[in-house]
Write a structure and sequence with these properties.
Blueprint (H helix, E strand, L loop, with lengths): L4 H14 L1 E4 L5 H15 L5 H4 E4 L2 E5 L6 H6 L5 H9 L4 E10 L35 E7 L11 E3 L24 E2 L7 E4 L5 E3 L8 E9 L3 H6 L1 H5 L10 H12 L3
Antiparallel strand pairs: 1-8, 2-3, 3-4, 4-10, 5-8, 5-10, 6-7, 6-9
The protein binds 2-oxoglutaric acid (AKG).
Length: 261
Amino acid sequence: MKLATDEQQQILAEFYREGFAIVRNVLSGDEVKTLRELADRFLDDPSLESTFITPILKTNVLRSTQALHPAFAELLVHEPLIRLAKAVLGKNVAFCGQNVIRSDTNTGISMWHVDDLLEFPLPDDIPRHDARIKLPVFWFSFQIALSDIDSPENGPTEVVPRSHYSGRDVPKVERPEFEGRGPVPILCKAGDVYLFNHQLWHRGSVNRSSRRRYLMQNQYCRAWGPYRFASTDAARRLPADRMPDNPRLAQLLEPTRKTPG
Ligand SMILES: O=C(O)CCC(=O)C(=O)O
C-alpha cells in the first residue's frame, strides 16, 4: 500500500499533534489471518513460555516475534510502515521490538501509563509544552489490529489526546484529562494500523467481549538506539571468563549479558 505525499503529511501532522494517527486497511484479510494464526501457535506453545511470552496483568504478550517466523519479520518493512518510520526517525531507522498482545475476555493492560519514563518533564509552574514544538521522538510503535477492535467492549487502546505535550506523568485518577479532553478509544478494523507515541497517557482497556483481541506492535527507534542501549558490539566485549568477582559490576552488566544484542 502506497500513501500519496499529502496523505502521508496529514498522517504525520496528526501523529505529532495528537500523539497518534490511524492508517486504515494496511493489511489484507489474508495477512491478518496468517499473523493471527501464527500468534496463536506460538502463544499456545508451552516451550516458548519462559523465553518469548510475558504476561502483563493476565494479558499474554508474545515478544520478539521477528525471531519466530519470517511473516512477522517481513511485516517490519511492509509499506507504508517503513516509509512512515523513516519519515519520523530518519532514513537509518532501526528496529527495537515486535510483539503481539492477545487479550482474552476480562483482560487488558488496563493501567494508565506512559512507556518507560516521562521523557520531557516540566516544573509545576509551566503548564505544558508549547504546541509549536515538534517534540522529538526517539522510538515509537505502530499498533496493528489483528482482530476487529471496533467497539469499546473489544478492549481498544485508550489515549488522552495531546497528553504527550503535558510534561507530566498520568494523574492517578480513573479518567485522566488533559486540557479538558478525557480518554478516547482508538477503534479499528483488523488490518488497520496506528502510529503511536508512547509518551501519550494510554492504556489497553479491558476486553469485555467474548472474542479474543489481538494487537501487534512494530517498534522502531533512531539509528543510534540499538548501539546505545543493546549493542552486539558492547555484548561481545564483555569479559566472558575474566569477570572480576564484583557483585556491583555483575549487576551492571547483567542485562546486556542476558540479551546480547
Ligand atoms: O494493549 C494496548 O492497547 C496498549 C498496550 C500498552 O499499553 C503497552 O504496550 O504499553
